[in-house]
## 1
Amino acid sequence: MPVRPPSEIRVYRYPLLRCPLGLRARLLLANGIAVEGCGFGAPGLRVGEVVFTTAMTGYPESLTDPSYRGQILVTTHPMVGNYGVPSRSRLYHGVLLDYESERIQVEGFVVAELPRPSHSASVASLHAWLAGEGVPGIYRVDTRFLVEEIREHGVVMGVLAVTPVNEEPPSWDELARRLASSPSYDELVLAEKTQPSAPVTHRPEGRVRARVSLLDCGVKYGILRRLLERGIEVTRVPCLRAKPEDLLDGYDAVVIGNGPGNPALLRGPARVAAEAAASGKPVLAICLGTQLLALGLGAETYKLPYGHRGVNKPVVEIDTGRCMVSTHNHGYAVRWDTVEATGLHPWFRQPDDGTLEGLRSSDGLVMATQFHPEAGPGPWDSTWIFDKFAKLAEEARSRTG
């Protein structure tokens, strides 16, 4: 990928920088912006697309969201880590309650300040958690400056290096060479790393209202929790190996889940999603799932300049004008002018920039949201979509016996 030559690298650092954790860090962006700060988490070097989130809370959920795989995450909130890290012993129907997957998914984490945790439910610090999972982080940097750069010029690839203070860090020239030799985020099939290795079934406690399959490119556990709490049994199918019959045979409805990366690289899963939509069974697509469904039905996707990432994003239901605050994590979207080819109708839009945020069929059996109705983290304004889907799935089950 193109990287600014070393002579054009501009380095920003706070004066008199002191790093109490014994680690220092360097972050270089492909556009030549470089920041030096203190390190936390694990020493090491990671390359990823640098993106930002406007969420003020919910960093355990964000860091474990598989949709962030392949990305270095910058948070706009100035202090992160103040309530520590929750226990992994809290489960809901066997699914982790406070996490969105089994591991940290981001390539690196960028925060302004890293306070000591103070919360009764905390079992570790953010630093200790990242260190235990081998993920580097950088703090005591001007994250507002970084976010302004991204908003002005768009997301960009970056390289993050964390080293002990008593060791020589990689030079900016070395980091530039590493960045130049690394593939772009848009070229990576990241679902290979976030899909399950084999089908996985999650069963609710009590009566099963319906059985649904889920095309899993890296599903958030919040989606599983919302389905399980409504009495839905869920079988997750690895998205890159799935065939239409894997999702349709023996199931009452289908979920096309979220995940990381460029949807245009996932033509196979897109065709499977289209087959599901044509089956006559209820279908719910979320985030990447919406893009795959649209691609499979003949629409086109494009990359947003800096994406939508946060828990405070408005969406408007087009027919009613009702506005909801929702959770977002996407860098791609469906082109408005190609929707007609799908046979679906626009359902939601984003009022800030007009992005298409939802699609649905005339009969209501196919629903797709670009935002995340399950929250995790985020507001609960749109969880009614799961109520609607669960009712459709239960009705489909009653018809087939």
## 2
Amino acid sequence: MSATNQSKAFQSRIGEALGNQQAHTNFRSAMNMLMENRLKQFPDQEELLHKRQRADAIRAHALRNLPTLLEKLEQKLVENGIQVHWAENGEEANALIHQLLSQAGARSVVKGKSMVSEEIDLNHYMEERGIKVLESDLGEFILQLAGETPSHIVMPAIHKSKQDIAELIHKHYPEHPYSEDVDTLTQQARQILRDKFCHADAGISGVNFMVAETGTLCLVENEGNGRMSTTVPPIHIAVTGIEKVVESLSDVPPLLELLTKSATGQPITAYFNMITRPRQRGEMDGPQEVHLVLLDNGRSHIRRDEELLDTLRCIRCGSCINHCPVYVQVGGHAYGTVYPGPIGSVLEPMRQGLDKIGALTSACSLCGACGQVCPVQIPLPKLINRLRAEAVTQQVETQGVKGQGSLRKLLEVWTWKGWRLIFGSGLRYRLFKLLATRLRRLTPPKMGGWSRYRTIAKPASRSLDEMAAKAGFDHE
């Protein structure tokens, strides 16, 4: 799809989202709650700043030393009995996971919440090849029933009301009585999923942090479904981006604290899982095999740019999304990407290319809220502005941005050159004012996208200088 068509599709999704009042109400209510909860967790702003600076330093250090840490991580994982696989892109990752499942004879999979699996469209790939994948996270399970993608990276079904959820469960599982009671709905989902955990051939999960020092995979969750997915089936496959590595176990607590408090306003999540090896002799549970698929998918390309690599510090808390005034108006699906909100407006154009998804950078008011709340201090407004400039520049493509200049329009270029020519000289500016006032009736009624929601103002019949002179005022 061309850049123009991408932009039109984006505008169409925005228009549709703005017309969905129920979804807007759901988002507004949820975002207000999340912002209030986060604020309660950080009463001391000076202390918060110190914590953010420490988290920033931890992630920045890991990215600076990424190749070394990944090699150390692989060595430790292998020593622990975990098999490591590398994937350059989503197609390679899917093929690797399919091969592992096929070798194990797996036909059914329970999957914990994983944004990277959404990034590579894992479920669709597996189901095309006869392997049934069941989402075990409650929000993801609801969306799977609805045939939808997540609208938020932490709370995927946040756009759904309890009535929507009740109808979905009753439609797909009519043996359960219709109920709009939240606790009843949760119990119904638990009953449906419990049997699947016990009989699944394999489990797939994401990873929040990977510790190079010990070869440990850390998973953060609230429901226990992630622990079930990684413990009950005989084979566990974890898939994650290469940027999730940290150097030591001591790096995890500062990041974990900010992650949970920034994401949902909780002091800590209900479950924090640390996986270091498969089941050992004499142990009662745990998978017989553990595999880790490390995905690049453009991350190495992003890391080459000294400014844009800050994006890879992200710990996927979703706080920037929760505080974004654009997101709360249109929701996640309007972005048309795996990662919505401010982080998506930076990450997705770099991952897919400005020529494919560069219009996403316009979904930002540059209010700065996302940068103020990011727990690892990613300068999101600055990066969005950088990508906007890259999308229309005529420079040679830099290392960190694909599709540079794809949104450049000659009419816009010449308009700004004309503006610079006029305002760069006092004489030319006075002549322009004279022409603009005398030829005001020739002002066009429409001026592209600018006039879609605005009325084009006509110049006055006389300039301010002329009116001041006529009134006897000295304007020099």
## 3
Amino acid sequence: MAKKNKVVIMGCGRVGAHLAGLLDSQGHQVTVLDVNSTSFRRLPPTFSGNALLGDGTDEDSLRKAGIEVADAFIAVTEGDNRNVMGAQVAKHTFKVPRVICRIYDPLRQELYRNLGLEALSPTTTFAELLRDTLLGKEK
């Protein structure tokens, strides 16, 4: 992502807020959607993007977030099902070029990849990191 992108992030938990701050600090146009307005307190004080109250699985909320001109959509709520639903709407309804979703259940990860979604499992990633650290493997 070398160019400056328009990114919609669904979920303003720890990961969503941190990612929003990172992307914003690099000059990307970031909009964060969350169903809970208190979640926006996690955003860094320097955040200059948009924080919108809304459901990332709802087409009207996504339109308000600018999904129709977004370069990327990232779903990082606490729920696998919500993340997949939001990602599918972004990819198939709005044709967002890059769609990534977090999936906690590693068994579902492959299934969602088969649906054409970029699905990342922190469960798998962290387990591999712990294994490598335990066994003294450097990355």
